[in-house]
Amino acid sequence: MNNSMVVIVLSLDKPWNLEEELLYWTSLLEEHIKTLQIDERDLAKMRQNVVDLFSSYKGPENKDEKEEEKKNKEEEDEVILPVPEGALVNNLGIPIMVVLSKVDCMSVLQKENDFSEEHFEYIQWHLRKSCLSFGAGLLYCSPRENSNTRLLLDYMSHVFYNLKLKTEPQVIDRDAIFVPIGWDNLSKISLVSEGFVQFSQLKPFAEQIAPLPDIRQKRVMKGEDDQLFLTRMQAVLVEKQKSGSPATTHKVLEGEAKGSTKTPPPADGVLANFFNSLLTKKPGSGPTSPNHSPSPPPTQGTLVPPKKALAPQLSAPQQREEHEKKALASTRSNPEAPEEKPEAQKEKPAAVKTTTKLAAAPAAAPAAVGREKSPTKTPSKMPVKKAGAAAATGMKKPAPKRGLPQPRK
After folding, report:
1. At what angle do helices 18-35 and 117-134 cross, to 10 degrees?
2. 292-325 residue pLDDT tens
């Protein structure tokens, strides 16, 4: 316990709990020290060490002078100033440092809780006064903005190892307050309370820094599940049908939402069918799904379109046989029409047909150029490639010249 230091961390996100939390931790620390059963002499020595730490505070500007005086006057005892009024009223025998965290919430408190600069000055005044009674220091920090986090470590090293501290006390900047142990007194604290207009020093802290009423807090509306709503509406419609009284949308939803009834709603049967279809229909299930439940029977006033009979699906051989039967029946009814051939025996594409026709009449081309060919030559010797190319390019067949004999076909 002689080489220890207690750090009490408070949060500024709920400033109305600061006084309660500080009293809770200090009372818990006092009870814990009593359970340790420390000897009275040792406890008195620990308290004296806290008094010496509080009284021997020197600012950074006087630190070098103090070292020079120690070198020159090693044998002389250091002069210790008396403890100021109101300080160390509750001396627990251990150094205490109070850290107020989340000071970046000041802007949020100004927007949502209507806090002003006077609110934060009153909080500072109350904390400094409470810390003075325990002989504790005060430090504002914000880990999010990395404000004064390094300073806390440097000050703890200064207390434990007597290292040089270069940071001066700060009470002007509202989010960077730093009050080391032994620096503060009642006269310095009273400077903060001089500008109070809205707050009083005599009233309790909890009455002046209080949360806003629940009216200003945001209300969260929770919706009802769609299926539960539809089930409840269906039960209401069924009750209306049993009673025999015509129900309207306005009467059904009268308990849910009050609205104007400008146009008359549809009949009960249509609404019942609509809600039943929403309750029974599942996503992804069609009319042929096995899980599809049949729709309810139509009621009066409901128009049901006639259902069309679905033709049975035939396989490929059955379709081909059916097609041949139809062709045979049409041939018997019209004997002059040519017999229709099945799909497998149909003629080849147009390009092949043109080539065959040109190959069957080989004498047409020689007639165009005025040559005579023997009629005994077979048409198979006619070049098929040239005829096919002519047909493919869209060239017309040359007309025969007059005066020349035409070959027989």
Report:
1. 10
2. 455 555 555 455 555 555 556 667 778 888 888 8
